[in-house]
Amino acid sequence: MKKTILFALVAFALQSASAGTTDSLTVKIDDMHCRKCSNRITEQLSTLEGIEFTKPRLGQHTFFVRFDADKTNSNAIRTRITDSGYTPVNYYHCDKTDYVYFLVPAEQATQATIDAVKSIDGVKDANANARRKSLAVSFDKEKTSVEALQTALQQKGISATLPKPHVCSEEEEKKN
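Request: output the structure for the sequence above.
Response:
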């Protein structure tokens, strides 16, 4: 009995010593619309060492990730999400913030474009993805609107258009 207890204590101590620092991240992914989208992201994240738990929230377009901070970090997670074909943006817990997803030419998905977008009054953050030809913008809906943002982008020489409805949405409409 004493040997069993001693063995259990040693095993627990070794397990505790090898456990990393757990951290979590909630990522806003505007272009994640359906279960297929979240499955693609989950599959990509599962190949990243240190991922402990993932939970998509389709209605909120967010993805919760718990991970071992000694093995991976938020930048690696965002990169994997991008590698799966989606655009991660910063997530805000503020009801005054809204998000919009624009399509832009690949050559305009640059840091210069991001800087230009961030200089627009009411914009909180922006992320561009050349591969997906996209620009995700979070903004204060009390200071600006989607239409005003699109006009401001065009005035800055950025060819931003709103995407057509997501293909998954179109498939759902055909079923009904």
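Residues 6-18, 91-96, 165-176 have pLDDT under 50 and may be disordered.
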